[in-house]
Amino acid sequence: MKVKLDMSKLKNIAEALGNAPKAKVGVLGSKASRDGMNNAQIGLYHEFGYGVPKRSFLRQPILEKFQDKLDEAGLDGSTVFETASQTGDLTDLIKGIGLVGETVVADSFRTGGDGKWPAHAPGYKNNTGMVLVDSQQLRDSISSEVS
User: Fold this and answer.
1) Would you say residue 103 has pLDDT above 90?
2) I want to staple 39 with a disulfide (CB 3.0 to 4.6 A). Which of 96, 102, 123, 141 is the partner?
């Protein structure tokens, strides 16, 4: 008796995971620039509370909401393995994961950090009435990239 074992899917998984691209989400590349202080600097101050009230628009929402959003989008671990075994390439899947990250961050701006962000200082005039969305430049600078 001979047993033939097709290892091609396992090979695809190993190659895909070994060469898996990475998604970055945040204030990236050309989206950082603006007049005066750039979006990356402004984001840093708010993310960590340097001289302003702490309003985490990246780390906290990603930690709290990202996995649920991935699950909702059908981008769980089994999807990764299925895609890897079939195609051997995770680039499109990772791009989708980056877009989910962008959505999580956008939701944070829309909801004021789920209502957890400190309000503006008394007397501060804001164009939109939303915390961290005065000129909309910081919110609109969030993007993702895969490398």
Assistant:
1) yes
2) 141
